[in-house]
Fold this sequence. Notes:
Shape of chain A: globular
CATH superfamily of the largest domain in chain A: NAD(P)-binding Rossmann-like Domain
Order of helices and strands of chain A: EHEHEHEHEHHEHEHEHEHEEHEHEEH
CATH architecture of the largest domain in chain A: 3-Layer(aba) Sandwich
CATH topology of the largest domain in chain A: Rossmann fold
Oligomer: homotetramer
Strand order of the largest sheet of chain A: 3-2-1-4-5-7-6
Radius of gyration of chain A: 20 Å
Helix content of chain A: 25-40%
Structural class of chain A: alpha/beta
Number of strands of chain A: 14
Strand content of chain A: 15-25%
Largest interface: A-C, 41 and 41 residues
Number of domains of chain A: 2
Largest sheet of chain A: 7 strands, parallel
Amino acid sequence: MANLTPSHQRRVAVAGVSGYSGGELVRLLLGHPRLAVNPLLLGRLNEPAPAHPVHLGDLHPQLATAAGLGDPIQPFTWDRLVEERIDLLFLATPHEQSRQWAPEALARGIRVVDLSGAWRLQDPANRAVYNLTDADPAAAQKIQAEAAFGAPELHRDAIRNARLVANPGCYSTTIILALAPLALGGFLNPDHGIIADAKSGVSGAGKAATPKTHFMYAADNLSAYSVFGHRHTGELLEQLHLTEDQIQFTPHLLPIPRGILATIYVRLASKMTPEDIARVFGTFYAGRPMVRLHKTPGLPQIQHVVRTSFCDIGFHLAQDGKRLVLVSCLDNLLKGAAAQAVQNMNLMFGWEESEGLL
Amino acid sequence: MANLTPSHQRRVAVAGVSGYSGGELVRLLLGHPRLAVNPLLLGRLNEPAPAHPVHLGDLHPQLATAAGLGDPIQPFTWDRLVEERIDLLFLATPHEQSRQWAPEALARGIRVVDLSGAWRLQDPANRAVYNLTDADPAAAQKIQAEAAFGAPELHRDAIRNARLVANPGCYSTTIILALAPLALGGFLNPDHGIIADAKSGVSGAGKAATPKTHFMYAADNLSAYSVFGHRHTGELLEQLHLTEDQIQFTPHLLPIPRGILATIYVRLASKMTPEDIARVFGTFYAGRPMVRLHKTPGLPQIQHVVRTSFCDIGFHLAQDGKRLVLVSCLDNLLKGAAAQAVQNMNLMFGWEESEGLL
Amino acid sequence: MANLTPSHQRRVAVAGVSGYSGGELVRLLLGHPRLAVNPLLLGRLNEPAPAHPVHLGDLHPQLATAAGLGDPIQPFTWDRLVEERIDLLFLATPHEQSRQWAPEALARGIRVVDLSGAWRLQDPANRAVYNLTDADPAAAQKIQAEAAFGAPELHRDAIRNARLVANPGCYSTTIILALAPLALGGFLNPDHGIIADAKSGVSGAGKAATPKTHFMYAADNLSAYSVFGHRHTGELLEQLHLTEDQIQFTPHLLPIPRGILATIYVRLASKMTPEDIARVFGTFYAGRPMVRLHKTPGLPQIQHVVRTSFCDIGFHLAQDGKRLVLVSCLDNLLKGAAAQAVQNMNLMFGWEESEGLL
Amino acid sequence: MANLTPSHQRRVAVAGVSGYSGGELVRLLLGHPRLAVNPLLLGRLNEPAPAHPVHLGDLHPQLATAAGLGDPIQPFTWDRLVEERIDLLFLATPHEQSRQWAPEALARGIRVVDLSGAWRLQDPANRAVYNLTDADPAAAQKIQAEAAFGAPELHRDAIRNARLVANPGCYSTTIILALAPLALGGFLNPDHGIIADAKSGVSGAGKAATPKTHFMYAADNLSAYSVFGHRHTGELLEQLHLTEDQIQFTPHLLPIPRGILATIYVRLASKMTPEDIARVFGTFYAGRPMVRLHKTPGLPQIQHVVRTSFCDIGFHLAQDGKRLVLVSCLDNLLKGAAAQAVQNMNLMFGWEESEGLL
């Protein structure tokens, strides 16, 4: 990326602006201090422009201004992206589309941050859960191999130079950031299973009106789902170097619009003190602006992180110095999706990681 | 109804048990002390029985018991109703179906309490909003003319003897009960418009998953809708003897599962004291078990009535003795639907109005 | 209890009617088919009657009727309980008061169901968390020793004959009922720790207005608390015969009024099939009316049990046949408090366990 | 204010940072592009600094960063404000304190934006509801007379030059902005009363833990309060030039954290078309960046404005061209408090009204 000098005016486009993550992404990009030009907002691929143009404010009324409804949603054609000299395309699209479109963008010299699950998993067995099909499997495999997993706290250098960044899942981000310092540092007892009991707000279920997103189903309720089978599990295994029997992840649907909290139970390989653990985390996250390490007493909670781009991590250690409870939380639409995508863009453009996120 | 001796064992059936009102209705009927036989639960008309029979507890898990999932949903055929010697059929069905089925039931000697809007309105102009079509318009007109409006506090005698009772709308019940003592008693200034600002929980919007029943739309929100055009308006006009320019009714969607509260603004025809008003209401509702008149200070609120079968009514009078604010609330699925249907059934069977509702 | 013939008219009293559990208890007792006389509602001990008597409907507006505010709260004196020939006193009082009053009641021949934590724990080390002091420690110790732990599914016979029943904690009930068939049956690997990740609605925190019960704190939030230190832990240890390092229980505060769901992670001692597990639970809970065993697929959720007296239990077993996830839920004010108290009363009076609870 | 050149570096201080409005105000000021220096955060007046200094992140965890808890709360002394060369003091304090402190600040040449009700009302009869006492009544009266009512859409020029700006109430802002174009333009029938039925989230009730801010009171509920007596009424009368019998304002408590929606019913003086009304509003709010006029169909709703600094206004006109329903909404902590305070500061410093608010 040597040709990307700071003086170059970066231009980005967003496909999939109608969803919750897409809307938050556009909001962040509109307020980003280094992007002088508004993002190009894209509609459905190769469809003719609608008779009555749809504007950003039609989809996300809180983004309208007194002057009007904001930028129009443009027809999505590859020619248009080339004409507009787009440097980076955000795909906030379903995984099938992301799987198809990312190679198309790369072929035109456009870098990609994909918010779907299409490119996150290197192991085909893990990826099987998405039922992806590739027009050119060999080419797709090469692109898959070079895709960076977009967790900046783990893969900053790879992201800086990547053409394609696979933005992590919301649950995965919450759990990986809490476990990485211990799991990658060899502090966990590998034979004692890890339990990640995670709870998410309803926006994580997407904008489609279904029986489970009905207010009457979700309100005043809590339910576990996808026990032993949530598709974010593969990300945990690959990023934390675990086998399937070493971690159990159970998601729950919370009666709130946004936010994820994971309560994670681990056994340490050998006895540690709270200070030891604080030191491990402090070292791992030194200089990382989007992770806040909670000081005891007290633990992170969803309200602390909602509408912020932070992941908050705290812990309680049993008196035996071995049984550890970690609590990790973030806003599933921000650090769990759109803000992390912007963080990745910042790295790809050689900017400060936290630019536009504080 | 002289032939209905106490020794006769009443048998009832419910069509439309899958919805919220239907579920509440079944719950009330199962606990009703005078109905020795469980209600017959009916599925869709003339459809074959499903391969795997559906039970009540599949649709409404809170109604299952430790022993099992409760009664099966039976195929709905008219023959079956006759065989089972059903006395009364509750229709918790969409209005088109209710319009079609009520005459069919009556033709077989089965009385009907219809919870839809199909039979509530005598004036065809008011009824137009439902787009109803009748196979035999003349017959339908005769049935319409004899249908009792199922507000027991207004039409007790007619309900007792009715073959068909049209259970009122949830908003209508809330507003009519608050206004009837004053409007029907001639205490209101007819030239000064009445304002009924009403707010309802999401169950009022039904079980269908739509953009407006999505948790992300309804939660942490409030929105007005159907301004100057809600289809319960006709009930207000007919029951309170008002013209369209004499009352304005604005519904709002509350971020709660159930409950309606209406704040109603009227001008009195002549100066009154709070004691005068309390006396008018006390007289009107004397001996009526399902209306609770709130004592000042304080006003009714939704929590007081949710999961009860009551309508609570309170008021504040301005110092001028003329401007009056009424607050009325109820549970839209109970006094606004299922409990009122049971109240009507009680009257039709010659039982205490409040049987099974306290 | 041979002298308690069915013809004896049972009379009960409730101390502590102002709280959430007390209110639910009174509601259940008022509707109980075997209690012909309303419960005697008691105010604070030895205080003079207030100038303006407080009625049940003042404290719990949903319990008022059209006729009035319901029974008055009586001055609480021991003489009055004796005069009224009270058979059984419910204590829905703070644990210090329950510790003091239960012996006073027993001394007057009045049986007690105590809803507080005062008498639940036999091991003084576990009980230390309550900071209880006894006027007569030796007498208190004797009473403690005879107190039955009020989990009818575990101690039915003891409860039937008990003078004092210590109604279990809400979290404890949820977790004990899910684990008892496996833990007491020897099906668990004792060396692998049990994780109980539990989530409760705000009513569990009581009626006092505190920073943590403020709507702005609890709404749209989730927070873990009392990690490694919740005072219900002792009940788990004593009832399930576990040591402190064998179970980890983490409570969370849910943004809902009522309901508890616990997600519980265990390792089986040896490989089992789902059918094996269903059989263990089916046998353990055969004929027990207040526990509903969930059929797969699907898991219990809070909405299924709120406003019911059931505890629902379901599970998912990993393909290895060893790692098991249990989900258990109940209404913390009902099966977690008031309904369980009524269930205990039913047993103490020789009635059907589920009387007045279905 | 001729001495306030653009080159002068503006310095502001905030008293009362612990509350909801204070927290939002600090958040806005920290992100304000024209304030190069962080606001000085003030603790209680004349109290010694606490042993363990409190930081912003202790009070508002979402405002902490990965690096730390943010600025400390400083002891509040007038000397300190002078030393720090503070230009403008925000008072997010109770009205008694604001009444006492504003003159103190002005005496030291420090301009004030007061977010309380202390200085909003010119008519002593309207102000009586606050029970304010002045050490020097004559001096207070002079200050009162020069205080600008901080509704920038009505009083921009006065605010620019004011030493003291009284930031309006949250309800008042919602209602005044909806009515001003019609009421001040003479389009309303003055003899027909205006009804303003307003609904607010719980943050409007403040941070104190009280029975009415308890989650169990507010959740799943709606209640009217302060009928005919809310203290924001005086602002409506003074700003809209109405008499008490010309407007009825009823507030309600919504089960949501933030947001206000007012449904307002008026009669027009003469028949108008929707286009006429749109023109009146369009002219009145031309060039005003913080008011968004809603285009029909559809109406403003709380979700559109929460976490924005806008007031959204929409309407529905009856077919008679006379009966008009206005819907107005805003975030009570932003356009209803903190954002409006920043908007006023912007005007006082000669900056763009919307600086830091979009």
